[in-house]
Amino acid sequence: MKKIFAIIAAVSVAFISASAQSQVNTERYIDVIGSAEMYVVPDEIHYEITLKEYFAEEFKKGAKPEDYKTKVPMEKIEKEFREALYSVGVAPEDIRVKEVGDYWRSQGKDFQISKRFDIKLTDYNMIDKINSVIDTRGVKYMNIGELKNGKMQEYKKECRINAVKAAREKASYLLEALGENLGRVISISDNSYSPDVTYQAKSSLMAMDMAPRENNVAAEDGFSLIKISFSINVRFAIAD
To answer: Tens digits of per-residue pLDDT, 144-170?
Structure first.
């Protein structure tokens, strides 16, 4: 008896499943993609400066590499560098060593030690102040690194909302052109890739490279802004 019941149940389930598959969704709909973007002024700027040991003779007129003998040590370069930063208002806790390395040496010469510093700022104007007081003889490289904003999540929310509104507007005028009316929302899909990470401007200030930025930043007055962008897929029903 139990075996017969199991067979009947199995057949019933199969029949119900087949019936469900035979049903076709006849609702009319339109799929659109709404996009939005905004640029945000950073309130935390990371200015990266790489220092490198150098030879005093390098800066003497007519000197040749074979004349380079008096190496200026990193201890002296860094001490003067930090004092210069303090003089324009950079706090000690906002100066961080990111990397220490050395450069290949030519025969008969000492290694030249390098250090990369990350300086946290809240205002782009501080960059000009820093550049005006540091001794550039010991500077190998300078560039703007990470850009952050403490209200990033709020801006992302606003940008997503604007993307959804753009999707509705697009669907409305497309259907209006066909003599149709917009119906209810069927589904919303956020396919954007906007991770909670900081953005970088790759320009080198040492080389005065103010070329167009990468896709995640925009230039304003020669400096960078954070770009936020979202694309939202929305399916709307077409009203009967």
So the answer is: 999 999 999 999 999 999 999 999 999
Which pairs count as long-range contacts for 178-185, CB under 8 Å and 24+ apart, including other chains?
180/238, 180/239, 181/238, 181/239, 182/236, 182/238, 182/239, 183/29, 183/236, 183/237, 183/238, 183/239, 183/240, 184/236, 184/237, 185/234, 185/235, 185/236, 185/237
Q: Nearest CA to 160 among 234, 236, 229?
A: 229
State the CATH class of domain 25-41+151-239. alpha beta
| Domain residue ranges of the chain, discontinuous segments joined by + | 25-41+151-239, 46-146
Distance CA 223, CA 228 (A): 17
Secondary structure class of 179 (helix, strand, coil) = coil
Per residue in 166-213, pLDDT (tens digit) is: 999 999 999 999 999 999 999 999 877 654 444 444 444 443 333 334
**Total H helices, total E strands in the chain:** 4, 11
Model confidence, pTM: 0.69
d(CA 53, CA 209): 24
Q: Looking at domain 46-146, which of 3.40.50, 1.10.3470, 3.30.70, 2.60.40 is its CATH number?
A: 3.30.70
What are the E-state strand segments in 149-222? Answer: 181-190, 199-200, 217-220
